[in-house]
Amino acid sequence: MSFASEARAEIAACQPDTEAGVRAACYGLACFAKHFDARGLVIQTEQAETAGYARRCFARCGIEGAVRRKDHASGTVYEFKIGEGAEAERMHALFGTTGREPSLQIDPELIRSRSSVSAYVGAAFLCCGTVTDPQKGYHLEFTTPRTNLARDFEALLAEHEFAPRRSRRKGVNVIYLKACASIQALLVFMGAEQAAGQMDTERVVKSVRNRVNRYTNCETANLGKTVRANASAIRALRYLEEQDALGALPEPLRQTAAVRLAYPELSLAALCEKMEPRPSKSGLAHRLKRLEAISAGLRARKEGESP
User: Fold this and answer.
1) What are the residues whose beta carbons fall under 8 Å from the beta carbon of 285, sequence distance 6 or more?
2) Which pTM does this prediction carry?
């Protein structure tokens, strides 16, 4: 089961406690249903939990609907339907609607309390919401073809400080969240606390992984610099050795050359530990630079003398 499916299943398992909450949940299901008009209501979903949630919520309000399973080549769809007649009339009476309104907008009288808003938003998510797996990124969205409803819904989420944004994608209104903290807070608000906790765990894992990667990259870069510097110094010292030039150098430089040739893999700090008296790291680096300069100068003179 995907992360989004797990979140929807968790929300569907939480039934509202109050009459107002149940009505708000039914209202959210109706607003974001595939069809909601004078002929009734149709909700189509790939999850049996969502269809069952809709049936239970409307039943608690005295409205009976039917759930049907439809198997297609592309997968299984569950349909919850309230058909024409007395049930549709009771549904519209519950919301104070007729199904013939020119546009669908949110009636604030039906979601006055915070718990009612929670039930409404959770039901909307069951109908048209999805959330990205936190291993891949942070994105939660709701979609609806109804523009006025999208505007009202964006304002409702903004009123509760979830920082939503709104756009259009292929003619459909999209209300979405991108910030990890906002998505977590909204999941908790809708009743998907385990999904929010999973996001938090994944965020910590990502943070640790990023710190380890940064440290590894830094160490790898430093190691590469050390290897390149060591290789340059070794080449210079071996040239001086081939030219029998090391014996003519001052004692500190002869000692530095001998120790570096004996331990070509060591860092400067480790190389200092092999010398007595022990030089500073910067002092040893300066000696090696001098040796490289002497080697380069000798090589240039030799090449100048060649026919």
Assistant:
1) 268
2) 0.69
